[in-house]
Structures are given as C-alpha cells and as structure tokens.
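Researcher: Please predict.
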Amino acid sequence: MTAPIVKTATGSDEDGVIDALKLAFAADPATRWVWPDPHQYLLHFSTFVKAFGGKAFASESAHYIGNYSGAALWLPPNVHPDVEQLIKLLLSTGSDEAKKDGPMVFEKMDSYHPKEPHWYLPLLGVDPLHHGKGLGSALLHHALAMCDQDNKFTYLESSNPKNIPFYERHGFGLLGTIQIDTSPPIFPMLRKPR
C-alpha cells in the first residue's frame, strides 16, 4: 500500500480544506454543542475554521491529504487564533448554552497553552468516509517531523474524548480537562519535541 501524500494547501485549496474539516467535525461534541442545529452548523462552521485556524493558510502550515479526504491547520509559534472573532461568532450564532459558557471555555483553553513558543494544532480531521486508513496519522506525522526539527513543543485541545488515544500514540500527554457548566469536556494535550 502506498503511503498517503500530504500536501501544503495554497489559497485555491482553502475551500476544499474547510469542507474536509466540516465533514470531519459534523459529529464533534464541542462543535455541535455550539451549533446543535444542522443548518446553523453548516452555515457557520467555515467562519469558525477561518477564525480558529485560518492563519495556517498564510503561514503555509495548512495541510491536506488525498482529494481533501483530511486536513490539518497548524499555527506556528507566536501565531494565534482570532479569539475576538471566535467570541463574536459564538455570541451571535451559537446555542444559548454556548453563548453563556463558551467565552469561559476559550479563556480556560488559553490558560493551558505552553508559555514557550510552540506549534498549535487547532484543527485536524478526516472525512468519516476515510476513517481507518491512516490519513490522520499521516497528517500528524508530516507536521510533527517539522516541529521536532525546530525543537518546538506542540499543543492541541482534543474536543472528542475518543481521539485522546490517537494523540497519545503520537506522543501527546494529557494536561487536564476543560469543562465549564454545560460545555462538553475538552482535553488539552502537549507533546515535547523529539
């Protein structure tokens, strides 16, 4: 079997990458807590991706695999999500629970980020049609090799508890649990360079 090829996304790939993530996160506990209504989820998820990890496109650290079967958005050291835009989107389009508790979730997420410069993985996902084919691992290996070469920590928050063992197999350690009142648990994870 041929190893999947990971490509760096350019501007013309942005829609395909976002669509791959939209499929991947359609059943994600945290995302669907924000937008439990399917129409609202489909309507607003692209804007969420752009605010949360969209700077990866300009940083040349947005990757995809296959015909947009999976994608990952990495933010390099000292590049951060547009939290102001995320909060604005949450408060204007999210569920009542997300409007109430979401800002505190983002605040708590920020408190777990390493203090030293690090690579941040806001979003990694594979179209459910392609689960079990090693695409998520290929996307992760591709970026982790660069992070290790730069001798930088990598950090993420897993919004689905089912994904924790996957990240642990790739060297990430669980730092704790983020949960505010009605929010589903989110799991901050850190990986030291190798």
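Model: Strands lie at 6-8, 62-65, 70-75, 118-126, 153-158, 173-174, 187-191.
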